[in-house]
Amino acid sequence: MNIAPLTPGFAGDVTGIDLTKKLSASQVAAIEAGMDAYAVLIFHDQHFDDDTQLAFSRNFGELEISSGGEMSKPEDRRLKLEMADISNLDRDGALRGADDRVRLSALGNRLWHSDASFRAVPAKYSLLSARIVPKSGGNTEFADMRAAYDALDDATKLQIEGLVTEHSNAYSRELIGFPKENYGDRNQDKLRPVRQSLVRTHPVTGRKSLYLSAHIGTIVGWPVPEARAFIRDLTEHATQPCFVHAHVWRPRDLVIWDNRTTMHRARRYNDLGEIRDMHRSTIRGDAMTAPQQEAA
Ligand code: OGA
Ligand code: MN
């Protein structure tokens, strides 16, 4: 296995390994070491189906049960519970229409975010497998939150140390004007904000990173408008082109990213006319980043 850096220290292009086969402990360790160094790894020509993708994913920890389909009832799912459906297809494989609620909610992926930051124990890795890609558009962009942290001035580093943010899917959907009521009673409890540290330290490398996400609604102890303005500033800083790598998808690409140290966003494409079918497995994190508020 060889890793070629796509930018210095961020995003690596990996060759010389077939991830659909059972891997040895040393191969898994090499991938983890690559993730610690580059935060995003890109593998081409990986002929996954859902079972081989889930088997490969389990090398890195416990799988998260997808909540991406919050808008769809469990019986309307196209993929199994461990697989997030990052496509524009309905259960029958037909393109979703312009007003489809699942489509509108999923447009939240166009905002810079970190997966599942709205969970008390947020995600570690996401693994996204491209099955069908559109002719143009639909790139995924990744931003390096370690480099973004390092580039802050000392006064800002001091100011953000110890700050705790509140994350909820309701905030990111509010940003795109998707009504909270559309979640239905069934899902309201999933919208309860959770607390996360604004600065995270990577458990292996010890590097600090900014933990930002479109799901942030406020900073604990701050007036909301001041918190949102500040988070917007930090997000603008952290997503400057010098911190960003854009991935142009080919069918059968697998991209793994570390949600603890990166943000990502989807770019637009002709989703009403062309199929984009991506399957995402997600590895659970192993700890909360901040103590949660006591239940009222
Ligand atoms: C995701 C996601 C972006 C994309 O799978 O978590 O945000 O480009 N995907 O589809
Ligand atoms: Mn995502």
What this model shows, in words?
The protein starts with a strand and ends in a 12-residue tail after the last strand. The model has no long low-confidence stretch (mean pLDDT 95). It has helices at 25-38, 50-57, 101-106, 145-150, 154-160, 169-175, 224-238; strands at 2-7, 10-15, 40-43, 84-87, 123-132, 140-144, 164-167, 194-197, 199-201, 208-210, 216-219, 244-247, 254-258, 262-266, 277-284. It has 296 residues and is an alpha+beta fold. The structure holds N-oxalylglycine (OGA) and manganese (II) ion (MN).
Record the SSE blueprint:
Layout: E1 2-7, E2 10-15, H1 25-38, E3 40-43, H2 50-57, E4 84-87, H3 101-106, E5 123-132, E6 140-144, H4 145-150, H5 154-160, E7 164-167, H6 169-175, E8 194-197, E9 199-201, E10 208-210, E11 216-219, H7 224-238, E12 244-247, E13 254-258, E14 262-266, E15 277-284
Bound molecules: N-oxalylglycine and manganese (II) ion.
